[in-house]
Please model this.
Amino acid sequence: MSNSDSLGNISNSDDFSYHKEIIPTLMKQLFPICRSITGSGVRKSLNILKEISDFKIFEIPSGTKCFDWKIPDEWNIKDAFIEDSKGNKIIDFQKNNLHVVNYSIPINETLTFTKLKNHLYTLPNIPDAIPYRTSYYKREWGFCLEQNKFEKMDHDTEYHVVINSSLSKGSMTLGEYLIKGESKHEFIFSTYCCHPSMANDNLSGMILWILLLQYLKSKNTKFSYRFLIMPETIGTISYLSKNQFTMSKVLGGFILTCVGGPGDISYKSTFLETHPIDKIVTDTLDDNNIKFKKFPFVPRGSDERQFSSPGFRIPIGLICKDKFHEYENYHTSLDNLEFIS
Model:
């Protein structure tokens, strides 16, 4: 069955009843894909979203300078595992792609536990969870596993360690669509597509992004709306470096991230904290008697940091439901489809 068959025919973006079917379908399709800041997983994910509503997909070649950053080599992975001396796989990338440190270099060696343990990552305070780790800018390899599983490993045996990955010249993939309004002044809706199998962070943001794009396309708007989907940090830095004049027309916007959790709503203010976006969001939540927690702007978190940086100073707000860093399952295998159901 093709993606288009499973997604169905979505013709009326004003009919929100279809969300009950399309959101779970998209979640199930996109959740297993191993995404990163480059590679085939991002391309596959964006092409699935594109079936809901069309947008431009473009590439920035490896090695391209973006201010004082540079687009890294493209990373792809086919398989990875650790098996014990009896051939039993104790860690299997095919069962959960968080098991591999994202951007790991390839390896195929037999190692003692003493040598292997320096490349293993766990969360002792959440012993049943697999942590999410990356090594984008340092050539390294590693595996992530549950603390409970780590404690059961035999210290006196050797382990066959395999990561079938590649790092080579390629490109980074981004998506964009501009809805033109009566005014040339713009607002941005941006999300990131680089996280692997985690549901709230940030599969929820990706799905909200495409559904909001589809909805606003059907409206006549006063302002123009620029939709961006790209890898977090490096993707936004690269986009800003290539679109400095365009960004001068942007009045503000939102990062769509962590919108599917079971917890309370929160709002992270723009760097101004008194921008009309801040007032509109907080007044709307108050007027509807919606309880929420307000966070001040700090220059860390998601891509609000890049948009708000000197030279751009675009006011960006974030409305979340279980905000990043604020829920225990954050950046672990427990941020799964059950967590947001």
